Amino acid sequence: MLIAVPLLLIPVVLYNLVVFANGLTGASMAGADAALREPMFAIPMASGASWNVGPGDLILFLALILLFFELLKSTSSQKVAIVNHALSMILFVVCLVEFLLIRGFATSTFFLIVTMVMLDVLAGFIVTIISARKDLDFGGA
């Protein structure tokens, strides 16, 4: 049943940890935004520039990788896939509420995470509908 849990829950939880650990101590959420952008390490490039990577960048990178695996999971026709779609929809609603109503979540980083969760929901339902239609077409022929 653990396979039914949406993988995109991981970057959402990580973002929540960063925001609530750094942003709720003051009146503004500037602390959370600064914590997401603060460079953790720098990678020297061939051009001579330095690529600074922060926690927000790493969370987005992880979310993109997990979105790929979620899209692969959405092609499954097992019964657990329906539970996964439902949990993904709940995760999307929670993310949307956080984005719209809670300070610190109105950032581009979290917007991209919400977009990835929405794409997971849409892909899951679209793949399920298309595969069900093909099953009906095959059964009717």
Query: What class, by secondary structure content?
Result: mainly alpha
Residue windows where pLDDT falls under 50 for at least 5 positions: none
Distance between the termini: 35 Å
Total of DSSP H or I helical runs spanning 4+ residues: 5
Strand order of the largest sheet: 1-2
Helix content: over 70%
SSE succession: HHEEHHH
Describe the biggest sheet? 2 strands, antiparallel
Q: Shape, please?
A: globular
What does this entry look like structurally?
It is built from 5 helices and 2 strands. With 141 residues, the chain is mainly alpha-helical. α4 runs antiparallel to α5.
Topology overview:
Elements: H1 9-23, H2 30-37, E1 41-44, E2 50-53, H3 55-74, H4 79-101, H5 108-140
Antiparallel strand pairs: 1-2
Helix pairs in contact: 1-2, 1-3, 3-5, 4-5
What would a concise description of this structure say?
With 141 residues, the chain is mainly α. The protein contains five helices and two strands. It is 70% helix and 6% strand.
Name its key features.
single chain; about 140 residues; mainly alpha; two-stranded antiparallel ribbon; 2 strands; globular
